[in-house]
Amino acid sequence: MSTSGVLIHCLSLYCMHETHRIDAFTLHSQEMAQSRPCPLLWVRPLRCMVDERLDVRVHGLLPGVRVTLHALLHTEDGDFWEGFGHYISDDSGTVTVCKDASLGGSYEGVKPMGLLWSMKPIPGSRTGLRFRKKDVYTPIDVHISVYEDHLNEGFREKCPIASVVAQRWYTAPGIQRVNVTEKGLKATLYIPPGPGPFPAVLDLWGGGGGLVEYRSALLASRGYVALALEYIGRVNAVGKSYQVDNDYFEAAYTVLVQHPQVCPERIAILGLSFGVSVTLGMAAYSSVIKPRCVVCVSGSHIMPVNGSLADVFAEIKKNVMNTRYDEEKRIIWRDLLLPIPDDPSKKVEMGRIKCPILLIVGEDDQNWPASESAEDMKQMMEQAGNSHLLTVLSYPGAGHLIEPPYSPHCRASNFMLAETRNKVVVLWGGQTEPHSRAQEDSWHKTLAFLEQHLYSNMSH
């Protein structure tokens, strides 16, 4: 055999050997892949209310594997929000979110619900977004996924190794929704299932106006008839906006009192922001509104005594020169009511209020002077001898928009001025993690407060 023939023969034998070795390696790899379990993403409950916690776990990983847990939701306005955490599987190949620390991402540390409260609009989204659910009869679909390695971006371009959709609801099964137009009102009534009668809550949002219903739906899901009332930015028959007067709120309260499924002597008022001014004013001075208790979130008692809403707005406008802006040109309004006046005619006479009050305060509120107002209210009630009725929950690092728990923290957002219809960006304040802790803690304490004062000693 020639030299070249010997070389060809040797190469042929070598190739046959390598082919056999590669085939054997491939077969071994396939056997390994078949014997290794696929990662399993375990989320419970898959369907629950928005104020309930999720238990998120990943099983079937190799020990010490770096993974990213990612949560994504698509809002009714077409925007995407996301939150994500970086984890390393334990010795059993498991990640347990309620026990294991996130090493990075949109939150860090052992944060059982960090995937949700740390959510922000995805990169490239419109500016000034705020998450608010409009259709409370559809769920929030949260797409939870697991990705290999620790990622901070590009989730859409990568394929997750496991995914699950968790549904979160504002309305429990059987909740009835009723539009209310009687007595000139624009409101929505949410009624729990069953014959009742139930305690009730008059639900007042703030200066942004509109008819905001998701908190009322959640309250109904927790056993209360809830009336969401629109009272700012009302428009008459010719399209001109107008301010409602005190009779409007008394009419709304009367609707609850007269409803056959409401216990008329067990009605609370829950006010947020400007809604606090209405709540305290009505509780102190109205001969019609006699709440069993009130909850005041991020508000103040500073307002012209016995004045209308128009008078309150006029008082605020007097101090418009105190408007400040941060480095991003976002509006800070907290100084418009400062300093706290000594003149009693400019403040609700807190000594007149005879029902329990729960004050919820974010100490980094950049929209209202909630901390200063709470301190002054406390002093007024101590002097009047009714401070035993006051409970104050004050949260360091929390901002103005203290919402039901696990909803994304909104530090600043677009805001439509009611009179001019101009859009501005308002700074609400708060740092994401402490604000989110405040939302969770204050909501559960609000429910406990309402149960104590509306359900105690109640027989059906």
TrEMBL record:
Domain BAAT/Acyl-CoA thioester hydrolase C-terminal: from-to ranges: 245-455
Catalytic residues as annotated in Swiss-Prot or TrEMBL: S273 (charge relay system), D365 (charge relay system), H400 (charge relay system)
Superkingdom: Eukaryota
One Pfam entry name: BAAT_C
Domain Acyl-CoA thioester hydrolase/bile acid-CoA amino acid N-acetyltransferase: 51-182
InterPro entries: AB_hydrolase_fold (IPR029058), Acyl-CoA_thioEstase_long-chain (IPR016662), BAAT_C (IPR014940), Thio_Ohase/aa_AcTrfase (IPR006862), Thio_Ohase/BAAT_N (IPR042490)
GO terms assigned for molecular function: fatty acyl-CoA hydrolase activity
Sequence intervals crossing the membrane: none
Record-stated family: Belongs to the C/M/P thioester hydrolase family.
Record PANTHER family: ACYL-COA THIOESTERASE 17-RELATED (PTHR10824:SF36), ACYL-COENZYME A THIOESTERASE-RELATED (PTHR10824)
Protein name from the UniProt record: Acyl-CoA thioesterase 19
Native source organism of the sequence: Pangasianodon hypophthalmus (Striped catfish)
